[in-house]
Design brief:
This protein is of the alpha+beta class. It is built from two helices and six strands, in the order βββαβαββ. The chain has a single domain, classed as 60s Ribosomal Protein L30, Chain: A (2-Layer Sandwich), CATH 3.30.1330.
Length: about 130
C-alpha cells in the first residue's frame, strides 16, 4: 500500500483547520485549499484579488519545492472565486506568475470562504521532477 506523506512547509501560511497543506504519494502531489495570507504576518497579502492571487502562487512555489516539484510540474489548478467579477484581474496576476505555463484549470464561483476578506482560494495537483 502506498505511503502518504503530509507536511506544512516552513515559509507557508499556517493552516486554519486540521489539515496539512501538502500530501504526496510517490510522484503525485496534492496541495489543499490555499488563501493569500502572508506566511510571516498571518495577514492577507492585500484586499485585492491581484495581491491574493500572487501570494497564493508564491506559497505554491514554496510548497512544491518542499517535495521536489515546481510550477512547471503542476497538472491542474482549481480556483475558487468569491466574486466572478474578479476573473479578469485574477487572470492577469496568474499570468504574471505562471508566465507561459498553462496547466489544466477550473474556476468555480463560491458563495463564501472561511476567512473575512479572502477573495479566492486555490488548490492543485502536481507531480515531482
Amino acid at each position: 500500500m502506498p505511503h502518504v506523506e503530509t507536511s506544512t512547509p516552513p515559509g507557508t501560511p499556517a493552516p486554519i483547520g486540521p489539515y496539512s497543506h501538502v500530501a504526496r504519494v510517490g510522484t503525485s502531489v496534492t496541495i489543499g485549499g490555499t488563501a493569500g495570507f502572508d506566511p510571516v504576518t498571518g495577514a492577507l497579502a492585500g484586499p485585492d484579488i491581484e495581491a491574493q492571487t500572487t501570494r497564493i502562487l508564491e506559497s505554491f512555489r514554496v510548497m512544491l519545492a518542499s517535495v521536489d516539484s515546481d510550477l512547471a510540474h503542476v497538472v491542474h489548478i482549481n480556483v475558487f472565486l468569491r466574486h466572478m467579477r474578479d476573473f479578469d484581474a485574477m487572470n492577469r496576476a496568474y499570468v504574471a506568475v505562471m508566465g507561459d505555463l498553462r496547466p489544466a484549470r477550473t474556476v468555480i464561483g463560491v458563495a463564501d470562504l472561511p476567512k473575512p476578506g479572502v477573495r479566492l482560494t486555490m488548490n492543485l495537483t502536481a507531480v515531482t521532477r
